[in-house]
Structure formats: structure tokens, C-alpha cells
């Protein structure tokens, strides 16, 4: 069961849809890059459910209030989908790219329950170690891209961003920055030798800077300052002074070389326009306030040009797909409306009161980063892990 719970944290963020090219094999996969990861996660979840059914049913520890609340919410969710005013059947199971539908969110809830029923100190420690090992592997691929040694670099180049901005195995520089940012807090509590902590921190920080994600760089800088203050009176003081200087120099070079802020000002203005348009559509449709839309229904809804206000049309062409508000709270509000938004906020808030410091930091970094960006399955798996409480009375896990 332990292996079944660990595998999603390793395989999903590291899987490359065309990784066979490294070995001279180029498969013709009729699916999008991110979609493959969702399908892979679903297959791994089926394997975990199979292991649970065979070996671990007796280990379940129900939490009555939480599990009943989840069950009621799922019933309301299904009832709302049935009554909503946007009948797009494709959104039940999802289609290409980021249209994952119920498969995406339903799998996340099931994975949360499996983890919460079985995770204890030993499994938690092993998951944390493998998350960091995977982060190192993903960062290594990113460094190959930074050195232009990655054979996939040109294949995945397109006009969406400067191809010199590395993306690791997550296909998008911002996805990579958000992923590494969320696992940075785990470095110092994962049980690795202390001498490696600082170097892993430098590796992740350097890669985040090289993604060119301004949000990631700013949050990393704030977290670095937090870590520096926390270690001010300890032996690591000199190391973190050196790192603060190196981080400032490296991030300044990245910003100067790629003129990131000029690009990001336009990007930020576009986000504000999307936020405004999304909020208007929510307010203008109060009749489905309690019945919400299909999961991931924004792309279907905003494909109609009359569902885009004039301000948004200045930044987004009618032919461009708009599948996210680039704000996790607005995305949840649009797809699942007021009940879903309240549930999501409660799910984030409660663990902040009792979870470990590193998980709390990871949750806060998730919130700070994805207020301005789009989370994908790799990020949600990390968030689920950070939200799950430990079972303290488990002994001799299988």
C-alpha cells in the first residue's frame, strides 16, 4: 500500500509524454501533454484502490465529520451538475489539454481519502523524500534545457514564451516554478543529510529563477528571507548570507537578460481583464449560484464571443481558448460556485491550524503562486499531500 501511495508523487510530475526520444523512440501519442499526466494519475489511483481492497481495508480510520461532509458535498456537486444551465457532456469525463472534467477533481478527492485513511509518520517521511528526489530529477532535466542539451527543447518551442525559459518535465515554465516552489519547504525536514539541504535549496532556487516566473521569483525571495531570519542565530547563518547574495545576483541577471518585467506587465494586465470578465459572468448568472457549472466549463462557456467583455477582447482574441481565470479561487468559484468555493477555502484553512510547519508553508506558497497562475495535476497532488493529516497510532505499516 505504501508503494501505491508514493507512486503518484514520483511518476506524474516526472513523466514526459515523449520521453522515449531520449532512447531513440518517438511514440505517436494522440493526446495532449498534460492530459497524459491526468490519465496516468487515474491509472495509478486505480492501482492504489486495488491495493487498498486487497491489503489495507482494515487500516481505514474514518473521520466521521469530515467523511460525511465530503459525501454530502459530492452529492450536491452531482445534483448541481444535473441542474446547471451549461449542458456540455464532454466536461463530465474531460477532453484534450486541461479539460479534465470530473475525472480530474473526483480522482483528487479519492486520493485525498486514501492518503488520509492510511498515511502515518513513516509513509509521510518516505513520500516527502521521494517528492524531493523527483524534484531533483525534474530540475536536472531543466538544467539540460538551460544548457541546450535537451533533445526535446526545439520540439516544444513555440510562440507562447521564449524557449530559453526552461520547463523541466512540466511543459510550462510557470508550472515548473510553482511545482518546485511548493516542495522547497520540505527540504529541511525530509531526513536527508544536513550537508545536502543547502545544495538542494540552491538547485531548486536556481531553476525557479531560470523559469523566468516573476511570481515564483518574488515568492522564493520572500521565503528565502523567512528562512534566513529563522536561521539567523544558527550555524547556517553564513551559508544563507552567501545564498541571499547569489540569489539576488542571479535573479537580477535573469530579469535583465530576458526583459521579463516588460513581458509580465502585459501578462498581469491580461490576468486582471480575465478576472474582471469571469467575475461579471458569475454575477450575471445568479440562477445557477447554487448549482454550478460542469467541471472545467470555462473554456466551453467563454468560447462564445458574447461572453467576453470589451476589456477582455483587447487582450484575448476571439480565436484564443480561455480555459482558466489564472486565479485558483475564481476557477473554483466559476466551476463549482459558492458551495465549492466555501469548501475549498475551508479545506485550505483548517490544515493551517494544525499541520506541520513545512506543509503549512507549502499550502501558503500554493495560494500565493496560483492566485496568478494555473495549477495542474502535479500541483494538486502536492496540495493534497499537504492537506492530509497524519495517523499517529499506526504501527508496523505494510
What does this protein structure show overall?
With 398 residues, this protein is an all-alpha fold. Helices cover 65% and strands 0% of the residues. The chain contains 16 helices and no strands. Helix 1 packs antiparallel against helix 16 (377-387) and helix 7 (173-183) packs parallel to helix 16. The protein is globular and about 60 Å long. The N and C termini lie close together (7 Å). The model is unreliable at 394-398 (pLDDT under 50).
Written as H for each helix and E for each strand, in order along the chain, the element string is: HHHHHHHHHHHHHHHH
Low-pLDDT residue intervals, each spanning 5 or more residues: 394-398
Helix fraction by DSSP (H/I, runs of at least 4)? 55-70%
Q: Please tell me what the overall shape is.
A: globular
Structural class: mainly alpha
List the helices and strands and how they pair.
Elements: H1 2-14, H2 33-56, H3 64-83, H4 90-93, H5 101-118, H6 121-146, H7 173-183, H8 194-210, H9 214-230, H10 237-258, H11 260-283, H12 298-302, H13 310-313, H14 328-354, H15 357-370, H16 377-387
Amino acid at each position: 500500500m505504501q508503494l501505491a501511495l508514493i507512486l503518484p508523487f514520483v511518476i506524474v510530475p516526472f513523466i514526459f509524454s515523449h520521453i522515449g526520444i531520449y532512447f531513440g523512440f518517438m511514440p505517436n501519442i494522440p493526446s495532449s501533454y498534460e492530459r497524459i499526466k491526468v490519465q496516468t494519475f487515474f491509472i495509478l489511483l486505480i492501482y492504489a484502490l486495488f491495493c487498498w481492497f486487497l491489503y489495507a481495508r482494515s487500516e481505514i480510520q474514518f473521520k466521521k465529520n469530515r467523511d460525511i461532509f465530503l459525501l454530502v458535498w459530492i452529492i450536491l456537486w452531482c445534483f448541481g451538475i444535473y441542474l446547471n444551465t451549461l449542458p456540455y457532456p464532454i466536461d463530465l469525463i474531460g477532453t484534450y489539454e486541461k479539460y479534465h472534467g470530473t475525472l480530474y477533481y473526483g480522482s483528487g478527492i479519492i486520493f485525498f481519502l486514501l492518503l488520509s485513511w492510511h498515511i502515518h509518520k513513516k509513509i509521510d517521511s518516505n513520500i516527502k523524500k521521494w517528492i524531493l528526489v523527483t524534484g531533483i530529477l525534474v530540475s536536472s532535466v531543466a538544467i539540460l534545457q538551460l544548457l541546450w542539451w535537451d533533445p526535446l527543447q526545439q520540439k516544444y518551442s513555440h510562440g507562447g514564451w521564449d524557449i530559453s525559459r526552461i520547463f523541466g518535465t512540466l511543459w510550462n515554465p510557470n508550472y515548473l516554478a510553482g511545482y518546485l516552489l511548493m516542495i522547497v519547504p520540505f527540504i529541511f525536514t525530509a531526513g536527508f543529510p544536513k550537508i545536502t539541504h543547502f545544495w538542494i535549496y540552491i538547485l531548486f532556487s536556481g531553476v525557479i529563477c531560470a523559469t523566468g516566473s516573476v511570481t515564483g521569483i518574488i515568492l522564493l525571495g520572500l521565503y528565502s528571507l523567512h528562512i534566513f531570519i529563522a536561521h539567523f542565530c544558527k550555524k547556517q547563518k553564513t551559508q544563507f548570507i552567501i545564498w541571499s547574495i547569489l540569489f539576488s545576483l542571479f535573479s537580477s541577471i535573469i530579469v535583465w537578460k530576458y526583459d521579463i518585467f516588460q513581458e509580465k506587465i502585459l501578462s498581469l494586465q491580461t490576468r486582471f481583464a480575465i478576472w474582471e470578465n469571469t467575475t461579471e459572468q458569475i454575477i450575471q448568472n445568479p440562477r445557477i449560484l447554487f448549482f454550478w457549472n460542469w467541471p472545467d466549463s470555462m473554456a466551453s462557456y467563454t468560447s462564445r464571443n458574447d461572453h467576453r467583455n470589451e476589456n477582455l477582447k483587447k487582450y484575448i482574441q476571439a480565436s484564443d481558448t480561455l480555459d482558466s481565470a489564472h486565479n485558483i479561487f475564481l476557477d473554483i468559484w466559476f466551476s463549482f460556485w459558492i458551495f465549492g468555493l466555501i469548501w475549498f477555502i475551508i479545506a485550505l484553512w483548517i490544515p493551517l491550524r494544525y499541520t506541520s510547519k513545512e506543509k503549512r508553508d507549502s499550502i501558503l506558497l500554493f495560494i500565493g503562486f496560483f492566485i496568478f497562475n494555473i495549477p495542474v495535476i502535479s500541483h494538486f497532488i502536492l496540495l493534497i499531500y499537504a492537506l492530509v493529516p497524519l495517523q499517529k497510532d499506526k504501527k508496523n505499516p505494510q
